[in-house]
Amino acid sequence: MGYLLSKDQFGEAMRQLGKTYRIFAPVCKKGEGRFKDVDLVRYDFVSDASEIELTVESDYAFKEFMLPLSETLFFFTENQVKEADIDERPVIVFLRSCDMHAVKRLDHMYLENGSEEDWFYRRRRDLVKFALIGCSKSFDDCFCVDMGTNRTEDGYVFSVDESEGMFRCDTPDPAFAEAFAKAGGTEADVEPWCVTENQKAVTVPEDIPLSIYSDELWDEYTKRCVNCGRCTIVCPTCTCYTMQDVFYTDNGKVGERRRVGGSCMIDGYTDVAGGGQYRKTNGERMRFKVLHKIHDFRARTGYDMCVGCGRCDMVCPEYISFSNIINKVADAAGKEAGDDK
Ligand code: SF4
Ligand code: SF4
């Protein structure tokens, strides 16, 4: 079932849904971008549909609801532990197709990776339903088509495409269809928009030889990368974190434990007891990140971790392009295969 709605009707449907759900969506923050007078699109809770940014790609990913940058997990005293409370109202998260595919990666990492689910992720995940934002065009840095993430056929409760003031919504979930009908929407056949080509193309190599570890291609990133970690903070599938215990009192027995976002690109990430550090240079860190995204994760799950959203290319202050690196790895792997013949 689908609906066509005017701007006011779509706003009314969101108002009605807002009585039950909190709405977490990309929002344009005026003047909060990297440079003066540059806007930033990041996620926030909205109270009105007009705040939702549907036409511009978001600089940051939706993951901040399920994996907040800093989350208090529990409080402790000398002999008691109490989990931190969270707002338990359900949430609708607006996201694009590449990010819907990122949800599958996050679920795998936090719910299917080992014998136990991550309880703290699970309780947030259970609150969430997804609204798919259709893509009418590819943005400059996207390479979702080659990563196979440009289409989403299920997993959302409704989709929304905006064109010339009209909103097209596909509503596979009857409960949500009712909200669109009550708002005055006209029934129609709607298929969410998706792109079928990007300006950027990547070739993800099937096999990557071990010689890639010592390939000189990584040296460039030792010089160019400034290990700021921005590429990992914006990535919808980067999930590394560190733990912090914060003590409230001088006796050191009362406090809270926090889970705080980490990054394999920054100093200190691989520090170990005794002063050791596994990946000292920025090139080594880049190698680890890239191979994790397009090789190691696939070896365990059968699909790549990177979903081709292009955000890491968008935010890098050194204009380092992840899609270029994928193609360089493919070239190096191809040369190696040729050398073997
Ligand atoms: S955003 Fe660019 S400079 Fe910063 S850590 Fe990532 S690759 Fe390096
Ligand atoms: S590595 Fe870059 S392109 Fe791939 S999912 Fe992360 S941010 Fe998006």
Number of helices: 10
Tell me the fraction of residues in β-strands, as a range: 15-25%
What string, H for helix and E for strand, traces the elements in order? Answer: EHEEEEEHHEHEEHEHHEEEEHHH
* Bound molecule types: iron/sulfur cluster
Distance between the termini: 55 Å
Helical fraction: 25-40%
Whole-number total of structural domains: 2
Overall pLDDT: 94
* Strand order across the largest sheet: 3-2-6-7-8-9-1-10
Radius of gyration: 22 Å
List the helices and strands and how they pair.
Layout: E1 2-6, H1 7-17, E2 22-29, E3 40-46, E4 70-76, E5 81-83, E6 91-96, H2 97-111, H3 119-125, E7 128-133, H4 144-147, E8 158-163, E9 166-170, H5 174-182, E10 186-188, H6 219-224, H7 230-234, E11 241-247, E12 255-261, E13 271-272, E14 276-277, H8 282-301, H9 311-315, H10 322-340
Parallel strand pairs: 2-6, 6-7, 7-8
Antiparallel strand pairs: 1-9, 1-10, 2-3, 4-5, 4-12, 8-9, 11-12, 13-14
Helix pairs in contact: 1-5
Q: Can you put this structure into words, describing what you see?
A:
This protein has ten helices and 14 strands. The protein starts with a strand and ends with a helix. The radius of gyration is 22 Å and the shape is globular. It has 341 residues and is of the alpha+beta class. The structure holds iron/sulfur cluster (2 copies).
